[in-house]
Amino acid sequence: SAELLGVPMPEGTTRVLSRVGALVEGPAFDPCLCGWDNLARYDAADRAASAGTARVRIGEAMERVGLTAAARKKFRNYSLGMKQRLAIAAALLTPRDLIVLDEPTNGLDPQGTREVRSLIRQIAADGITVFVSSHLLAEVEQVSTHVGVMRLGRLVFQGELAALRRTAAPRVAVRTTDTEAAAEVLGKLGLADTVLVNTDKGEGLVTAELGDVAAEKVTAELVHAGVGVRGLSVEAPSLEDLFVGLTGEGFDVER
Questions:
Q1: Of 21, 76, 99, 118, which has the highest C-beta tally within 10 A?
Q2: Neighbouring C-alpha atoms within 13 Å toward the C-beta of 26
Q3: Can you give the pTM of this predicted structure?
C-alpha cells in the first residue's frame, strides 16, 4: 500500500496531485517560446489552476526562481541552470505541499549548481517539503536534512542525515614522516582499522577509527612517543562512504 501526503494511492490521485509539483529528468519546453509563454502553456494545461490568476502566479513563480529579467527571453537561449530554474518555476505555479526533483543539478556547471542548490533551500524554508532523487551525493549532503538509501529496490536506511552519520565511527588522520611508529601508538590506544598511506615525499598518513578515545589524547601520546606530528584531524565519513557501506560496491550485477 502507499500514501501520498496522507492520502491512500492510487484512489486518491485526483485529490492530492494538485498539491505536488515535480521536475523529472530534464525540463521539456518549447525552445522557440520565451520563459513566460512556456509557463503560460503549462499553467493552461493544469485543470486545477485558475485562469484569472495566471498572470500573477506566473510572475510570482518567475520572481521566485530569479528569472524575472529573462521572462521574455527565448528558452533556447537559456543556460542549463536557467532551464532547470524555469522547470522548478513550472512546478511552483500553484501552491504545493511537496516538490519532487529528479537529479536537479545533473549536468550543470558550478554556477548553475549553486543557483539550483540555493533555490532548493529557499523552497524548503518556505515550508514546502522538497524530495530530491540524486546520485550526486555531495549535493545531497549540502541540502538535505533527511535521507533515504535504496539498495536493490529496498529502503536500507531512512532518517535524519545526522542519524546516518552516527552509524559510522569518525576516524583520526595523522600526517607524519614516521607512519609505522604512529600506527603502533594508535594500536596501543586501542584504535581499530588502522590504515597506512605512504607518499613519495616521505610524508605519510595514518588513519584509524577514533572510537571513544579523545583526539587530544591521541596527539599527546604521539608526541610523548617521539612521533613527529605534522597534522592531525578527525574526519567524519562522507555521505558517499556511508552510502557504499549500506549498499556495497563493485561492478558485478546481482540481479
A1: 21
A2: 8
A3: 0.76
Residue 157 Cα distances to 79, 102, 243, angstroms:
36, 19, 9
Q: What do you get for the CA distance between the two ends of the chain, in Å?
A: 25
Q: Write the pLDDT tens digit of every residue in 177-186.
A: 999 999 999 9
Burial of 214 (0-12, 13-18, 19+ CB in 10 A): exposed
Q: Looking up cell 582499522, which residue turns up?
A: 193
d(CA 36, CA 21): 18
Residue with cell 596527539: 219
- Do strands 192-198 and 204-209 pair parallel, antiparallel, or not at all (unpaired)? antiparallel
pLDDT in tens, 140-161: 888 999 999 988 889 999 999 8
Q: Is 152 exposed, middle or buried (0-12, 13-18, 19+ CB in 10 A)?
A: exposed
201: Cα separation from own chain's centroid: 36
